[in-house]
Amino acid sequence: MNTETAKKPGQIAARRAAVALGGFLVVVAAIFVLSPADLYNWAKAIHLIAVMAWMAGMLYLPRLFVYHAGAVHGSETSDTFTVMEGRLLRVIMTPAMLVSWALGLWLAYAGNHFVEPWFLAKLAGVLAMTAAHGHLSAAGRRFANGSNEKSARYWRFFNEVPTLLMIAVVILVIVKPF
After folding, report:
1. Under a CB-based contact definition with an 8 Å cutoff, are residues 77 and 71 in contact?
2. What's the farthest any 2 CA atoms get from each other in the chain?
3. pLDDT tens digits, one per residue of 86-125
4. Are 44 and 75 in contact (CB under 8 A)?
5. Which end of the chain is more exposed for a tag (fewer CB within 10 A), N or C?
6. Are 64 and 81 spatial neighbours (Cβ–Cβ below 8 Å)?
7. CA–CA separation, 118 vs 18, rounded Å?
8. Tell me, what's the pLDDT at 1?
9. Residue 120, CA distances (Å) to 60, 115, 125, 127 in order
10. Under 8 Å between Cβ of 100 and 54
């Protein structure tokens, strides 16, 4: 038996994700070093890609919780949801959130947006999105250890929170109403 097949599928997936993330970071570093004239636009593009990945997870994870809430803890279905939720958080959502924050703050600094009212309102929306991420992360841990007390109905309702925050942030960035 070779070592690849002896490892758990989750370990293989985690290693692949780490290699992909490392490769992505090398490409980003190369862009920052080799193309300083276009740095702002590259940073903005990578920021938007990271935001889209983060939002995909923020919209999908509560939906997984809707179905997970109906599964019996310890069942095969529950265990499958636990693996899916954990990977979504660890491999996609949290790295995407961190890249979004890092590049977003850099873009705000580079564009001198910290003094603009629309940006401060956007920052409040992103802080609320980060708090929602934290809530989802804690819920994932509760589902994993069988201590979830929230109903499927709660998660259906909560699924709208990231959507509403996303709408507000996009309007603030594009329209700049104040």
Report:
1. yes
2. 64
3. 999 999 999 999 999 999 999 999 899 999 999 999 999 9
4. no
5. N
6. yes
7. 36
8. 43
9. 27, 8, 9, 10
10. yes
Q: Two tokens at 165?
A: 């925050």
d(CA 152, CA 149): 10
DSSP calls for 31-84: HHHH-GGGHHHHHHHHHHHHHHHHHHHHHHHHHHHHHHTTSPTTSHHHHHHHHH
Q: How far apart are CA 177 and CA 161, in angstroms?
A: 21
Burial of 46 (0-12, 13-18, 19+ CB in 10 A): buried
* DSSP three-state, residue 148: coil
Q: Check: CB of residue 124 under 8 Å from CB of residue 17.
A: no
Neighbours of 156 (CB within 10 A): 14
Tokens of 111: 């564009």
Instruction: Report the C-alpha gap between 169 and 121 in whole angstroms.
Output: 8
Whole-angstrom distance, CA of residue 35 vs CA of residue 42 = 9
φ and ψ of 104, to 5 deg: -60, -45
For the chain, helix (H) and strand (E) counts, in that order, are 8, 0
